[in-house]
Amino acid sequence: MSDTLREAAAALRRTGDGLADLGAGLTALDPGPRAFGADLPGAPGELTRQLHVLLRDALQARSREAAAHGARIASTADAVARAAGHYDDVDADARARTVP
Amino acid sequence: MDALARLEPVARDLVHRVDTALVTLGAPADHPVWPLLRRLGVTPADAVRFVVETDPTPLRATAAALRDRAEAYEATELPADLPWRGAAGETYAEQAAGLRAHLGELAGRLRATAAYADDVADWSARSRERLARALADVLTSAQAVTVRTGTSPAPAAADIGVRLLGAVAEAVAEGTDGHRRWASELGELPYECSPTGADPPRWNGTVEVPRA
Known about the structure:
Chain A is mainly alpha-helical.
């Protein structure tokens, strides 16, 4: 039982770490403001800034979501690992109490 | 290389002559170039530069990379079916279901962000095509000859300005509509899936250990 939980904890930890890694690279996908048009005054420049800021902020939000969910999954992994440890303690206690 | 990338260098001199004529000679008071100049706040040459610098290629690359990550999220495995009974096991099962559901929602948010990047790329491509048509029209127009030969160029420059600024005004209006549509769709997604709150499952001493 404790081995199964330990394996589950390890799988959860890998998932959490993987998600955090995926999220960390998201802001690098921002192509920069130039792709949205020239940096100008007036309505075109304002639109350039608005279109770019929306994508930049969205990528930052996706990155924070991934980091938070990765941490959430890692926290669950820790809890499962602790439960596996408790099972070990129970098993050891039971063995110690067993009359030969 | 699209039509705009080919035409803009050819038209650059004409467009700068149009700017110079408008700045130095003005235009008739009732000419439709004035409302366009006021609405956009830029000269024809700057308006052309605005569209020329939009580039759908990196936006499509961003969209593709976001969809790849969404697929990675969806392929992520979360151990759910553990041989773990009792209150802690039930809590874990609920927590794992919530975590998996939220992961699916995060993948959806990545796909929405990709769709926005694609939408902007489509807008960029349409704007470039529209301006390329406008440049092709003005390059072959009688007004272009007038502006180039310098004989009373002001009304002709204003006419060319209307054709170019009109194309850019359509692009700006379309881009503004697109921004408005997406503005409320891409915010940060809160985690609301945990049926037992944010706490991870805890050992509570009531777990049933299955008999071997």
